[in-house]
What does this fold into?
Amino acid sequence: MTLVIPTGCLRLIADQSGVISRAQGAEFGLAGEEMRNRLRFADWQRIHHGVYATFSGEIRREAQLWAALLRAGPEAVLSHQTAAELYGLLKEPSPMIQLTVPATTNPVKHGRIPGVVVHRSRNLEVTRHPVLSPPRTRVEHTVLDLIEDMNDPADRYDLICRAIGGRLTTSARLRDALDKRSRFRDRREAESALGDAGQGALSNLERWYLRGVERRHRLPVAVRQARSRIRGKSSYLDNLYEEYRVCVELDGTVAHPSAEQWRDKRRDRRNLAIEKLVTMRFGYLDLRTQEAQCRTAGEVVRVLRDRGPWVGARCRLGGCPV
It folds into this structure.
């Protein structure tokens, strides 16, 4: 006998990437025996206990995510690396599907969920995104969940910059989400990182320059990510000292591969010829250590002093050229 699926149920199945739970089917009047027959004749396939794919063949990532959610219960949301995957913050899917449920529920009391890591939260009503499908944590809380588990400050800052640079959130919204958490590992370091990102330092190189060169040596404050428009083309300058007509660009190997170096040099020459803007470029080796940062600061100070008011820079480190 052919199983007739109500129109509303078909819409639900389509919205859930072809996946349905036994409980959802029962709400639409589908008998358990009818669904088991679909499994028996291989029209459907079982993904988790009580959760079925309403098709044969490969179970794609979207269906796997929905199956994990339906197995964990109606209040579950995708979180951590899996939510970051959906927001485009990670290049590769995490091996294990990560989801979060309210602290009062226990979706694994009838057995663990294969391929799924379950987190519990007491404030899921705050961290859950109100409209996105499949359900997931808000991007701000996704970022905070991930950086709290990271040990390398550079990795933490890189994730913050990807979220802000990708226009998924802002430093202010991340700080607001952090303030809503009563406990957070390395809170002071996270607050410092969000403060630097809020000032426009959107990479580890830019942060090293901001902290190790500009602040430590008390240089004038540059405009971060300053927009420049020449001959109808817009570009963004990492650090612009407007009064001095000096731009400091920071070239990381990822952000500025060799194929782009000639383009950068052409832009530098165009800025000098049209805007009278001198460009100084520094890379990883110019900023990675305190000694290198002091040396870089000395070069910047000499150029600033040649092109504008006297710069009263100084540094507490012995042997610093500034």
Remarks:
- The CA atoms of residues 229 and 235 lie 6 Å apart.
- The two ends are 86 Å apart (CA to CA).
- Strands lie at 19-21, 45-48, 51-53, 77-78, 97-102, 116-121, 223-230, 233-241, 246-251, 278-283.
